[in-house]
Amino acid sequence: MSLKWIGAVLILCGTGGVGLAIACGVQREAEALRQLLIALEFMESELEYRLTPLPELCRRTAERVNGCVSRFFAALAAELEGQIAPDASACTCVVLRQSPALPPKTAAALGELGRGLGNLNLDGQLRQLRAAQKSCRETRRQLEEGKQQRLRSYQTLGLCAGAALAILLL
User: Fold this and answer.
1) pLDDT per residue over 84-135, tens digit each?
2) Are residues 74 and 91 in contact, defined by beta-carbon separation less than 8 angstroms?
3) Read out DSSP for 132-157?
4) Of residues 166 and 115, which shows the higher confidence score?
5) 120-152 burial, b if ≥16 CB within 10 A, otherwise e?
6) Which of 23, 57, 60, 157 could be disulfide-bonded to 151 (CB atoms 3.0-4.6 Å)?
7) Non-local CB neighbours of 73 within 8 Å, separated by 6+ positions
C-alpha cells in the first residue's frame, strides 16, 4: 500500500516539475529576447557611429550583454575571426548549431539577423538591425502578454495532471 503512495507522490512531483520547467522556459525566452534587444541597439549605434568591423562588433556586443546571447556573440566573433566559414551568414549558422542553449525564438531571430549581417552595405545592415529590433520587441510583447497567468496555468496543469494520473493508478 505504501508503495502506491510513494508512486503517486513521485508522479505528482514529476508532472509538477514538467509544468515548472515549461514556465522556466518561457521566462528564459523572455530574458534572452531582452538581452538580444540590448545587443541589437548596441550594434546599431556601433555601426552607425563607429563603423566597427563585424568580428570586433560581435566581441564588444558579447561584453555588453549576459547569458546565452553573450555566449552566442562571443562564439560568432571567434568564428568570424577564424574565417572557417566563407561568410557571416554561414558563420551564424555554424554558431547556432553549436548553441543548443538558445531559446527557440531567440535562435530564430539571431538566424534571421545573421542572413544579412556583413552581406549588406551600412544602410542595409542598419535597416536589418532595426527590423530585427522590431521583430524582437513584437515577440517579447507577445510573450509578456498574460505571462503570469500562463505561467501559473502551466504549473497548475502539471500538478493537476499528476494528481489525476495518481488517482487513476491508485
Assistant:
1) 666 888 889 999 999 998 999 999 999 988 887 777 788 888 888 999 999 9
2) no
3) HHHHHHHHHHHHHTTHHHHHHHHHHH
4) 115
5) eeeeebbebbeebbebbeebbeebeeeeeeebe
6) 23
7) 39, 58, 59, 61, 62, 65
